[in-house]
Amino acid sequence: MVTINDVAEAAGVAPSTVSYVISGKRAISPKTRRLVEENIRKLGYHPHAGARALASSKTNVLAVVVPLRTDLNVSVVMEFIASAATAARAHDYDLLLLTKDEGPAALQRVASSALADALLVMDVEAADPRVPMLLALDRPVVLIGVPDHPDGLTCVDLDFAAAGSLSARHLAELGHRRIALVGPSPAVYERGTSYAPRFLRGFTETAREHGLAVSTRPCAHSYEAMRTCLDALFGDGPAPTGLVVHNEAVLPGLLSELRHRGLRVPEDVSVVAVCPDTMAEHHAVRLTTVAIPAEPVGTLAVEMVVRQLGGHTAPESGCSRPG
Amino acid sequence: MVTINDVAEAAGVAPSTVSYVISGKRAISPKTRRLVEENIRKLGYHPHAGARALASSKTNVLAVVVPLRTDLNVSVVMEFIASAATAARAHDYDLLLLTKDEGPAALQRVASSALADALLVMDVEAADPRVPMLLALDRPVVLIGVPDHPDGLTCVDLDFAAAGSLSARHLAELGHRRIALVGPSPAVYERGTSYAPRFLRGFTETAREHGLAVSTRPCAHSYEAMRTCLDALFGDGPAPTGLVVHNEAVLPGLLSELRHRGLRVPEDVSVVAVCPDTMAEHHAVRLTTVAIPAEPVGTLAVEMVVRQLGGHTAPESGCSRPG
DNA sequence: TTGAAAGCGGTACCAT
DNA sequence: ATGGTACCGCTTTCAA
């Protein structure tokens, strides 16, 4: 293993000088700098992460807690991870991956054993048991999602209320008078993940403001559940002419089923799908999409936590929602 | 921060004794053990990962390199990560996440700076530039996917040849005489990712053995591309009656398009989809699925690399393919 | 069965 | 502008 001493010796300087060349924490003569940098390259020197962490109390690692449930939007999670990873590297951080089902104890473990400098926590629930833990941790944290009591923790979230509102307004502007929402799985609502009700609220309120008739239903992830859901929405009374699908999984089936029932899209019913644009491209019919831009959220979350690590002690008050 | 010295002092023993209680590397009297363990709990002691890594040259971290391209099967990647993360924790390892687009240099960096003890590399290509790098690294490695020249590196992979073969045989046994394959995006083939051609080979060979007429086409991820693909497969000569879709992204659109063309599934054409079972459930028509069980692969990969770390020096020869 | 102490490879303070 | 060195928290060898 190449150590800082090897580099120092080869360059004919003190180890501390090598350290300072790397960190830039004190002035170095151009000559010495060149000499050291040359030897770093030549020897292929990489500082030992553990030694560094021990001496500096900094790991340059961010822990990311991600949900691995499949009833959740897989592509959004991936998009988030991808952008977070990229943003992290841009700030010279690496990502340590934790799964949500390790529970609050994992956060404790990672923080206390100095495996990471800060934590990003996805899929935060209304009364998330991890929130009190995170508050006790005394490390920078960014929550992705908004719990009932953030208590000063920084949150980033997609503005699902706005997305719901946008979906409703779009249909209102197309002239629809009766609209319906196919929501996420009931399990999502029960878990108290805040995004579902927030979307619902935005949707309902805006629809009401436009004087639209609204019906809404959660929908589990099966063809059967989706059919039952459509039965309910189209069953009694005048049928809706606009449909918002906030449930990626059932979208393909739903489109088939609509066709099966003789409902053409968009002639008989307009469909707004809450999903990535790329997904809509794979369908035959014309859909409007309301994208969930997970990518900027991943980037933003990393940037916020890096800012906190940079000594920005006062946590950003409240919770921002880009998008 | 609670250190091993704090625990030692509280328990009235030497720091080394605490260390040995934790590692179990030497005999400890029951009395002392109890005493130490009590104080560890009471003080909430967690060994400092960096210090540990420095002293022992072991990080208890596995680096995982994942592809974040969206033209790749997102759910397979997630499934892999999830199972790898779980398996890793079961062996007391954490996962460091690297993205494929950081290239070979990232592997170098992580290994040389002792950020991880071993590497898991997904989405390995035929002439993968990371392979020579990995060989030079002198750390345990498990490749997910098989390059042209593994040169002794351990590989795990899904048996795509078998999956291709299975797809063809299934259609043969249903009595079909003319079958077709809608393959992954041309980009996948160009990249030389081995799974695509392996599937193709298994498919083609088995079809030939059964005396079936075969046509195959890659298919990019757009509705247009998919239609062009169907045009080609169904255009000239007698139409196939069995269709294998090795391309998750276009599946929903393809099913719509078939219906649009007046082809009923499975009456007019049988469809075998290579995708997770859960995905098939979301469609209206009866599909046969050939699942890609990423989960056992993630687990297996971790287990293999952990075994190597356990001193199993001789790399498992060749490449295993579960499933 | 346990203790003492020498490193592991950096960082950052104190000198010069 | 640079060098010397104590110390970060843990592991492990050597002694007792």
From TrEMBL, chains A, B:
Task: Kindly give the CDD domains that the UniProt entry links to this protein.
Answer: HTH_LacI (cd01392), PBP1_LacI_sugar_binding-like (cd06267)
Entry-linked InterPro entries: HTH_LacI (IPR000843), LacI/GalR-like_sensor (IPR046335), Lambda_DNA-bd_dom_sf (IPR010982), Peripla_BP_I (IPR028082)
Identify the keywords attached in UniProt to this record, alphabetized: DNA-binding, Transcription, Transcription regulation
Keyword 4Fe-4S among UniProt keywords:
no
List each copy of the HTH lacI-type domain by range.
2-56
Its Gene Ontology molecular function terms?
DNA-binding transcription factor activity; transcription cis-regulatory region binding
Stored PANTHER family: LACI-RELATED TRANSCRIPTIONAL REPRESSOR, LACTOSE OPERON REPRESSOR
Put simply, this protein is called DNA-binding LacI/PurR family transcriptional regulator
